[in-house]
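User: I'm writing a tutorial on reading structure tokens. Could you give me a worked example: one chain, its sequence, then its tokens, then a sentence or two explaining what the tokens reveal?
Assistant: Sure. Here is the example chain.
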Amino acid sequence: MNPIVTVQDAVTAFADFMEPTNAELDAIEREMPVILADVELLDAHIVTLDRIPTELDNRRIRRARRRALAARVALLNRSASASLPGGAA
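And here are its predicted structure tokens:
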């Protein structure tokens, strides 16, 4: 009979390397409005999966789509203005 050996050392050996860096966390933080807007859009679509969308559902989807697009545009504008030297637009 072979004893069962834990593999914790093998599994956690690379734990320090698997953590996100500060730059990655900052990127996630910058993209969070887009992520939240996409989640809201998905929620609006999920509500209508099992039924015919009502006018209120359609408005909710349109509103969520506009918010998602606005969040993406804002993210692109922030990243574009940050990459241009001298604050030129």
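What the tokens reveal: The chain has a mean pLDDT of 85. The chain has four helices and no strands.
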